[in-house]
Amino acid sequence: MKKIMANSLKVIPAVLLLMVAFFAGCAEDPSPVLWDDPTYKGGAAPVISAIIPADSAFAVVDEITITGTNFLPDTTQTSVYFNNKKVQITALSATSITVISPNIVSDSIMIRVVTQNSVEMSNKVQYKLLEGFGPYFAFKEKEDKPTSMTFNKNGDLYVSMIVNGVGAGVKRVYNDNGELKIADYAPKGAETNWSGLKFGRDGILYGSKKLRGIWQINAGVAPTNAPWVQTAGNVSDFDFDQNGQIWAAGIGANVYNIDPATKVVTNTAFQMEVISVRVFGDKLLLGGKKDGKQVVYEFTINGKALTNGRVLFDVTAFEATFTVSAITVASDGTIYIGGNGADPIIQLTPAGTASYLFAGRLIPTALAFGWAPGSKYMLYTKEGTPQTIYRVFVGKTTAPFYGLGN
């Protein structure tokens, strides 16, 4: 027993020495690390020297390029902030960063760049973002549904409405001292809703409803059951040409020319499921389904005749599941095609180049277009709750609506 205790007493001092050495080592100051060193500045801080476009851009739709120095050409190591919002980088180098402008509308946004190897952020640059995309008018009730729309020459918007699945006539959306308001324009007649609306040179609103004919829609008056002019087949949409003639088409075997002065209808045999009609110069554009494909079809207008018919754009070849709901044209000849795609609007340049309008940034779907004369914002309606008309800045004005006399 005494021998065991003696051996134990020999071990204890050794253990104590090891423990003292261990804790003494822990008490020593560790080797300095960079993030704990207040004098460490890391790599050179990024510097913003210029922003393009200068001073301001349009939120959501514009890309903005930041030039400067000390950027790291890796999106995991360089970030851009508009105020406190980190934005999407689309291109990056050591001296240039391109970003998609965020959905912030303000005249006092601070832009800054942060890199991973510097504890200092860049200089701050004040910037302005204007509304590039957003709601133009939201309907109050979830059951409200706009089906077609058009503007008069004064900039008032006229919208065909369905409420609770039933046609509710035409509403007028107008500007009252900077606030958009809605009012009844014409009550419902026999129609469920209007599939096409346009103003004529006489100041009268005309409508189609996928039946045989064109109707006149007068303020405060329920449209008659009989059309103003009857056609041999149904009419989904129509437009006026430079001579004041109406061109109309639907799901049938003809395109119709209507002389408003005489009400004489001239038929051009043509098989297509037409959804949308637009006139641009001497061209008649038809959007819809032909020979099993979604297309934009083009004719040349020659008096009351149509010549040089051709498929201008094969929508199905561009996106197999896209269904055309509406077409419209800008003053420079760019055609916009609205439909059910995740990217709801396809743009086709006069040179024939097709792309999505602001890919990944617009809310689907585009069911109908509206475009006020002189405005650089195009409107479209979408499916969903609540029903909303959106406006998107395209930076160009509409092609003439000849029924307005422009």
Quick rundown:
With 406 residues, the chain is mainly beta.
List the helices and strands and how they pair.
Elements: H1 2-27, E1 47-52, E2 56-58, E3 63-69, E4 78-82, E5 85-86, E6 89-92, E7 96-100, E8 106-115, E9 125-130, E10 133-138, E11 144-151, E12 157-163, E13 166-176, E14 179-186, E15 196-199, E16 205-208, E17 215-217, E18 237-240, E19 246-249, E20 251-258, E21 265-280, E22 283-290, E23 293-302, E24 305-314, H2 315-318, E25 324-329, E26 335-339, E27 345-348, E28 354-356, E29 368-370, E30 377-381, E31 388-393
Parallel strand pairs: 2-9
Antiparallel strand pairs: 1-3, 3-7, 4-5, 4-8, 6-7, 8-9, 10-31, 11-12, 12-13, 13-14, 15-16, 16-17, 18-19, 19-20, 20-21, 21-22, 22-23, 23-24, 25-26, 26-27, 27-28, 29-30, 30-31
